[in-house]
# Entry
Amino acid sequence: MSRRYDSRTTIFSPEGRLYQVEYAQEAISMAGTAIGILSTEGVVLACEKKVTSKLLDNDGSAEKLYVINDNMICAVAGMTADASILVNNARVNAQSYLKTYNEEIPCEILIKRVCDIKQGYTQHGGLRPFGVSFLYAGYDDRYQFQLFTSNPSGNYSGWKATSIGANNSAAQTLLKKDYKDDLSLKEACELAIKVLSKTMDSSNLNSEKLEFATLSLSKINPGQVIHKIWKDSDIDSLIKESGVLDDKNTDDD
Amino acid sequence: MDIILGIRVADGTIIATSKAATRGISILKDTDDKTRVLNKHNLVAYTGESGDTVQFAEYVQANIQLYSMRENDIELSPKATASFVRNQLATSIRSRKPYQVNVLIGGYDTKSNTPSLNWIDYLGTQVELPYGAHGYAAFYANSLLDKHYKKNMDVEQGLALLKMCLKELETRMPIDFKGVYVKVVDKDGIRSID
# Structure
C-alpha cells in the first residue's frame, strides 16, 4: 500500500508521512557515527570512518569533516557526495554574508540557510532529498560556542552534546550519562573517544577509523577562532591518553 | 545645499540635519527631516538628489528591519549596517541609474558599548570618523571641528561644538537652511534634542 506514496518526495501518505524523507533519514542512520560535544573552552567533533582499505590512497585530508569559514566546521553523516554540494553552498553563503556585512555570519543564520535548501527538496517534486545530516560546530559573539545538527527534512536544533549516524541513540544515551556542563575541551575529547569506542563495531580503535576536529579560541589573540582537524598521530596519542583501550582489555578479562 | 553633520562623542553620536527642503531657488518646506531610524541604535542621515535620497534611505531602513524580523529581533551592529549601506551604494554606482545619495550613519554598538559615526558617499566610499559632514557644510564645519574636537568629549560638549559649527554655517551659507534637527544615538537608543 505504501508503495503508492513512496516514489515522490512531495506526496503525503494517508498517515501524513513523507516516505522519501524518512528513507533518507534511514540511510543516514546506517552511515558512520559522528558525535559532537560542547565544552567551556570549545567544541569537539569526532567521526567514524566506515570504509578503510589498505589500498586507498589517502592524502591525509579528512573525508567527513569540513571547514565552512573561519568560525565554523561541520561533520557529515550520510552521502558524502550530497554533503559536498551543501558544504559548498554553505561556504558561498558565509562569504557572501561577510562581503555585505563585513562581519562573520552568525552560526544559526548560516545553518538556517542550508536547511532552507534541504527543506526545498521535501516539497518540490521529482527530486530526491539530500541524504545527509550535519553536525555543525561554530562560534559567534552572540552565543559563543554552539553545536547544531540538521537532517534531510530541513529541521535543525542546538545541543550540548549529540550524535548522528549509526548507533546514534546508543551514543546519545552514553553522552546523557557522562556529559557535564563544566567539561574542559580535553575532557570533551576524551568523552568523545570513550563514546565512540563503545558505539563502534570494531574491536580496536585507532586513527585509521577516526576523524577528529576541535574548535577553540586563540589564547594569544582574543576573539580569534582556531579550528584544527587532527592528524593521525594526534588521534592515536589521544586514544592512548584516554585509556579506552586499557578499559577494553580489562573488560575482556 | 542640505547640511548634514555628525559628531561622535564618548558615549554617543550626534547627528544634525538642516530643516529646509529646497528645489532650485525655492524653499519648499522648513520642517524636512533628513534622517531615518534604521533600528534602535542606528540612524541614517542623507543628502543628495531629492527623490533618490528618501527612496534609498527607506529601502535600507526596510532591509535592516527585515533582518531583525528574520533573526529573532537581533539588531545589526553599526559596523554591519554601514557595510550593508556601502555595499548597496557600491552596487548602485555600477548600475545604469545609480543612486546619488550621500549618508552619515550614527550608531551605538551595544555589544562593545562604543558609539560610531560612518561617512559614506554615493561612490561607495566608507570611513569611520570622529566627526564628519557632507556637501557645502563640510567646507565650513571641518576646520572648526578639526580645531575644537577633543577625544572623550561628552554629549554636552559635543552639542556646544555643534552650536559653533551652526553659527559659522548661518554666517557663511548663501541661503537660509531653516535651522537643524539634532538627534543623539547612545546606549538608550535615538532621541531628538531641541
Remarks:
- The helical segments of chain A are 19-28, 80-101, 107-120, 168-178, 185-199, 232-242, 244-252.
